[in-house]
Write a structure and sequence with these properties.
single chain; about 375 residues; alpha+beta; three-stranded antiparallel beta sheet; 9 helices; elongated
Length: about 375
């Protein structure tokens, strides 16, 4: 993998050169990991004028389960505890003779930015902006392989839960069990806080599990994801508990399923982000559910669970091949509950079979 990380750093170096900077300081953890193979707590990566350096507060790999960074990358560990790796990185950039240093202003605090300027007053600080995030947008096949495994783990955990007795158990207990099952199946941990929502809570995006118990006739909506080697999946499903679904539940489920299918079918290289959102949103709008819909239909996934692109009404840009995204429409009826259906997919061209569905748990409305 060393050559992969070196190639990523070279692409960023070319981007920096295009804006007149010979050096860059990367501080956002996901971006450090993307370029260095690991992101020890607090570490920063200096793309230097003469040498690249991972600057750490303590030796990498000391934390339990921590991954080792790229072995071809020099690591510099601060001599005294309590120091700031970013400040040390700026000092090293000046030592290497850099005149300009591009920094991630969207990640640095004002105080930290001032500290960089004071330690190396000869350096002119410029904004790297979201340069690394833009490089991360399109995934290589190794990254997609990790995403695929993360999705398989989430599918396994969810499938096992559906085979257990659910009535009488609390949302909180079910969420904790799902997260344990993720780890049992090889995940680093959950990709995000698992959401389990029952009855009137079902269908709410980002619902935090409560002590409400599952009851007969409830909608049960679950949203979970696994993190595998840093890469994250997301899946959401809705079920009915213990009995045949009521007519209103079938009608609402079929509507959200149609919206989700429309969003999935709109995924293609060259499709505008807003058009994917519009495809799913139109189905729900036409049925009279325009009010209260989520602000976006989906988002990118990778080293973070919510990254670019954003599939939203005002989003600018078009999809590329090999970009993983979620499609996750939902409707919540206050006091009654609702439906969310959420998949992780990879954008593929038609010649390659169209969008690759990573999360494959059935979307049939099951009565559990």
């Amino acid at each position: 993998m060393s050559e992969v990380y070196a190639a990523r750093r070279e692409r960023l170096r070319e981007r920096c050169a295009g804006v007149g900077s010979a050096a860059a300081l990367v501080s956002r953890p996901a971006n450090v990991r993307y370029l260095a193979g690991a992101a020890p707590h607090g570490a920063v990566l200096l793309l230097g004028r003469t040498e690249d350096v991972l600057v750490c507060a303590r030796p990498p790999g000391e934390e339990p389960g921590a991954e080792r960074p790229d072995g071809d990358l020099r690591t510099y560990v601060l001599e005294s505890p309590g120091g700031d790796p970013a400040v040390a990185g700026a000092g090293q950039a000046a030592t290497q003779g850099a005149e300009t240093l591009a920094v991630e202003e969207h990640h640095l605090t004002v105080a930290r930015h001032h500290a960089l300027a004071s330690v190396a007053p000869s350096l002119r600080l410029t904004d790297l902006a979201r340069g690394v995030e833009q490089l991360r947008l399109v995934k290589d096949e190794e990254e997609i392989s990790c995403l695929r495994i993360a999705a398989e783990i989430a599918d396994q955990a969810l499938g096992e839960l559906l085979e257990s007795i659910l009535v009488g158990r609390t949302e909180r207990h079910l969420a904790l069990e799902l997260e344990r099952r993720l780890v049992d199946h090889g995940a680093d941990g959950p990709a995000f806080a698992t959401s389990v929502a029952t009855g009137p809570n079902s269908g709410r995006g980002g619902h935090r599990p409560t002590d409400r118990r599952v009851e007969e006739g409830d909608f049960l909506s679950v949203c979970l994801g696994a993190c595998y080697r840093g890469y994250r999946s997301e899946i959401g499903r809705t079920f009915v508990i213990g009995t045949s679904p009521a007519d209103w539940q079938i009608e609402l489920y079929d509507l959200v399923f149609a919206a989700q299918r429309a969003g999935r079918e709109a995924l293609a290289p060259g499709a505008a982000y807003r058009d994917v959102d519009r495809a799913a949103r139109h189905v729900l709008d036409a049925a009279g559910y325009a009010d209260g819909l989520a602000p976006l239909t989906g988002h990118g996934v990778g080293l973070e669970i919510d990254e670019d692109p954003q599939l939203a009404p005002a989003a600018m840009g078009k999809l590329d091949a090999c970009v993983p995204v979620t499609v996750e429409p939902g409707v919540h009826l206050p006091g009654r509950g609702g439906v969310r259906i959420d998949d992780t997919l990879v954008v593929r061209c038609e010649a390659d079979g169209g969008p690759e569905l990573l999360t494959i748990t059935t979307k049939e409305l099951l009565a559990l």
